[in-house]
Design brief:
The complex is a heterodimer of chains A (about 290) and B (about 350). Chain A has about 290 residues and is an alpha/beta fold. Chain A has ten helices and eleven strands. The two termini of chain A are about 15 Å apart.
Chain lengths: ~290, ~350
């Protein structure tokens, strides 16, 4: 079966005064109907990878790749007009903090129906019904109230569920979740994750879960990519995470406290220059 | 643990009740604003009164003239109430002002209120048209400059604004008159109307453009328009410079916001991202900028009024000041101050209506 999304040697670069800065330096992976975790520290290129897939790298940033295909169809550097038809409709994204990612002067209902109407061409009444259904699907108890509310009138956890409802309303095939729970209270984090997980699985979507939280990704995803300095340094199934071999992944894991293996002093990650250009330790699937 | 729904503010009241509560909060806010308006106006009156009294001009001398006898001088002083203590003078003055009486202007011989009623509409007409031009051109220019940041259109907008800031308006006015009136003959010359239409339009609002429309006199309208268009364009250009720069910087701030990325992720067209999402968020500060720019045109167009022989408020106050006509100066100052305060309050109220977070 062909993958939903296929990336080969994706590069994103920005010209700067002191030469070209490469934010992403040759990332390759395939995404099926699965939950793929992308983990890395700040500046490792994980968010930029997500934005490149959505065609949201603004000039003067440049995106190149040997292959970037959605359902076998190239989406690399499509004209903006064609890209807009994919964005939201087939690939969508949930961002970090609903406080900033929702428009403060527009009611939530309008924000949800806007994208849905654009892609489905439905009437206002149908879009409204769809929005209320979606709000119900993300377990908001009083959808009517939230539909008419402004973003500052709801909590962060609700805001993120609204974002999920909004992004899933046009039924995309791929959802990129860029640190979707980092801005949330720990108490509502799992709830939001479970809602997202259920919706994504029910619809048979592909999920790219971008996070810096190794444990979270380990629990939540099927497969994990570890990124460092714009490259994938290791790829492995989530349940094998504790068997990671790359020294960076090992360093990250060792710096986390573990209940089952208490240590007196946690290790500090020692970065090495050789990781920047290290080869991937797990072979990619055939036909790369 | 409580369900997250419960943590969200006003609980699960029906939407209509919540909208009612929002409106109630807005109304209370407006009441507070109106109270502060009254206090500000009182303070304004006090300050202008004190400035008027400490000015080294003897108001009595201005009335009776240089060659009056001491007895005449004393009588006039008594009649003007200047023997009273200052606080009583102020109360009397405030009482008169509340009744719309600013006293009599020495230079024109009319009641100041009457003079203001004559000159203010001329200024309002000019400033309103100028602001309209400034907004209609400046806002889109600022938005486009921000959306195309660093491109040629941004550079052009910058140069246009810079010229607007730095050119002396009287020079632009003279050159404009020379070119469009003197050489090309496209527009009417100085003044509000051509001589044949002078006094022909029945006065309703005092703004001749509107009055001529009301009376259906198209010839007068066209004539008035050809007189007002150049000074209004110059004032408009001046406020365009300011408005477009402010619009651009407000827009740049919003365009880098996260919700703009959200809008793009949804697949919206760039036009909808800019006008539907970012622009709606700059309306609040923009309204304030436009109100202040309008207020400054109301007071600050003296040079334009002089160059174009425009019988407006700026010219009136300047002449009164040079003649030591303090009643007229005070009246004009209070009027301008009131305009500032009222415009400020109006933008404050608009702000509450435009921003759902404010109420």
């Amino acid at each position: 079966m062909s993958p939903l999304l296929s990336l080969r040697n994706l590069r994103v670069s920005f010209p700067t005064r002191s030469g070209t800065f490469d934010a992403v330096r040759g990332v390759s992976f395939d995404l099926g109907r699965e939950r793929l975790g992308v983990v890395g520290e700040s500046g490792s290129g994980k968010s930029m990878t997500g934005r490149a897939i959505l065609g949201l790298v603004r000039p003067p940033g440049r995106v190149s790749a040997d292959r970037m295909e959605l359902d076998g169809e190239s989406i690399l550097n499509l004209p903006e007009r064609r890209m807009r038809q994919l964005r939201g409709a087939r690939i969508s994204m949930v961002m970090q903090d609903p406080k900033f990612s929702l428009n403060p002067v527009m009611t939530i209902g309008r924000q949800i129906t806007e994208g849905y109407r654009l892609h489905s061409g439905q009437s206002a009444a149908a879009a409204r019904q769809k929005a209320l259904d979606m709000l119900e699907a993300v377990q908001i108890r009083d959808p009517e109230r939230v539909f008419n509310a402004y973003p500052h009138e709801i909590s962060g956890g609700m805001g993120q569920r609204v974002m999920i409802a909004m992004m899933l309303a046009p039924d995309p095939e791929i959802l990129i979740a860029d640190e979707p729970t980092s801005a949330l209270d720990v108490s509502v984090r799992n709830e939001v994750l479970n809602i997202m997980d259920k919706l994504v699985r029910d619809r048979g979507m592909g999920l790219i879960f971008i996070s810096h939280d190794l444990n979270l990704v380990g629990q939540f995803c099927d497969r994990v990519l570890i990124m460092y300095a714009g490259r994938v340094v290791e790829e492995l199934p989530a349940r094998e995470l504790h068997n990671a071999r790359h020294p960076y992944t090992r360093g990250l894991l060792d710096s986390l406290p573990r209940l089952d293996r208490p240590v007196g002093r946690l290790a500090v990650l020692q970065r090495q220059d050789s990781w920047r250009d290290a080869e991937i330790t797990t072979p990619l699937p055939e036909g790369l | 643990m409580a369900h997250p729904d419960m943590m969200a503010g006003p609980g699960a009241r029906p939407p209509s009740a919540r909208r009612g509560a929002r409106l109630g909060r807005q109304l209370r806010g407006v009441a507070g604003v109106l109270l502060s308006l009254a206090l500000t106006l009182l303070g304004l009156l006090l300050v202008t009164f004190i400035i008027g009294r400490v000015m080294p001009i003897d108001p009595v001398l201005k009335v009776v003239g240089e060659r009056a006898t001491q007895a005449q001088y004393d009588a006039a002083r008594l009649a003007m109430g200047l023997d009273q203590p200052l606080w009583r003078q102020f109360l009397t003055y405030a009482g008169q002002v509340l009744h719309g009486d600013f006293g009599r202007s020495i230079s024109t011989g009319h009641a100041v209120t009457e003079d203001l009623r004559r000159v203010f509409p001329a200024t309002v007409e000019l400033a309103t048209l100028g602001t309209l031009i400034g907004v209609c051109a400046g806002v889109p220019l600022g938005v486009i400059a921000a959306a195309r940041r660093g491109r040629w259109i941004d550079q052009i907008a910058r140069v246009v604004a810079l010229i607007g800031y730095s050119m002396p308006i009287f020079w632009l006015g003279l050159m404009g008159l020379l070119l469009f009136y003197g050489i090309l003959g496209w527009i009417g010359g100085p003044g509000r109307q051509g001589i044949i239409y002078d006094g022909m339009v029945p006065e309703v609002t005092g703004m001749i453009l509107i009055d001529s429309l009301l009376s259906g006199d198209w010839g007068a309208f066209r004539d008035t328009f050809s007189h007002i268009i150049l000074p209004a364009s110059l004032l408009g250009y001046f406020s365009l410079a300011y408005i477009s720069r402010m619009t651009r910087s407000f827009m740049l701030e919003q365009l880098s916001a996260e919700y703009i990325t959200t809008a793009r992720v949804k697949g919206l067209s760039e036009r909808r991202v800019i006008w539907g999402h970012a622009f709606r968020n700059i309306l609040v500060p923009l309204v304030t900028v436009i109100a202040l720019s309008f207020a400054s045109l109301l007071e600050g167009s003296v040079l334009t009024e002089i160059v174009f022989s425009w019988p407006g408020l700026g010219q009136y106050i300047t002449k009164a000041l040079l003649a030591g006509d303090m009643n007229a100066v005070l009246g004009g100052t209070v009027l301008i101050g009131t305009c500032f305060v009222v415009l400020n309050i109006a933008s404050d109220i608009l702000y509450r209506l435009l921003d759902p977070r404010a109420a």
